[in-house]
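Example record for the data management plan.
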Amino acid sequence: MHSSVSLLTSFLILLLSFVIVLIIISMPVYFASKMISKRSSLTRAIIASIGGLTIYFILRVITSPLPFVFSFVLAFLGLLFIFKITFETSWIGALGIAFLSLVFVIIVTTAVIFILISLGLIAPHLARLIPFFPL
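Corresponding structural encoding:
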């Protein structure tokens, strides 16, 4: 009985962790979509994040034999298509959501890195290894 309770507890912790991570990665999409689309909600942002990542991954795998730039552009268009459908916006609106999401991620990541450095949890020389960190 002990192992089944432990297994159930582990599964519930895993499920809860998955939901928390899903909400966290959907927040930039949610905030960006709030600025662009009238049809924005956290649920739609989560759906768009799951759908967008899935279609991006599938298209990148399928088109991987092609040159990287072509494969990347097709996969990115797939991601934009998911944003367009999910938030009922135009292609330009979908591009705006993708761009603003990236901006939000960069701002939050930079802020977290500054906080971690100021708390002494990351050495300043290690922060240079992190992409787009302005040191």
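Summary line stored alongside the record: The chain has a mean pLDDT of 86.
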